Amino acid sequence: MLSGDLGAGKTAFVRGLATGLGLDAETVSSPTFALVHEYRGGRLDLFHVDLYRLSAVDPADLGLQELGAGGGVLAVEWPERLTCDLGATIAVRIEPLDEDERRVTIARLPRV
């Protein structure tokens, strides 16, 4: 789960995930209008979800549980728009400190 204001660096963080998974980070872009982008062919598949344009989302409506259960990495921007949790997740909060510096807070969230 990736939280932070517009321009905080959530998609840049996902590019780093792609690199770590052996995927081409240059192909990663914000899925704001498509909602979900899939990147396959690395050590694990990467599913990048952006819920910014939606007000409330049931994860089942987008099939998010299935994406996350398939052994890939599910990166969700704007998770506060979800109407229920996805189970045990890792929360990443990105806060801009200035134009070139960010504070990144990472926490494991228990299954509820």
Compact description:
With 112 residues, the protein is α/β, with parallel strands linked by helices. Helix content is 19%, strand content 31%.
How big is the Rg? 13 Å
Beta percentage is: 25-35%
Q: In DSSP terms, counting alpha (H) and pi (I) runs of 4 or more, how many helices?
A: 3
Average pLDDT number: 87
Ends: how far apart? 15 Å
Counted up, domains total 1
Which class do the helix and strand fractions yield? alpha/beta
Helix percent reads 10-25%
Tell me the CATH topology: Rossmann fold
SSE ordering: EHEEHHEEE
Describe this structure in words.
The protein has 112 residues and is an alpha/beta fold. It has a single domain (2-109), classed as 3-Layer(aba) Sandwich (Rossmann fold). Helices cover 19% and strands 31% of the residues. The protein has helices at residues 10-20, 59-62, 64-69, and strands at residues 2-3, 36-39, 46-50, 73-77, 89-98, 101-109. A 3-stranded mixed β-sheet has the order 1-5-6, with no helix packed on it. The longest helix is centred in the N-terminal third of the chain and has 11 residues, at 10-20. The model has no long low-confidence stretch (mean pLDDT 87).
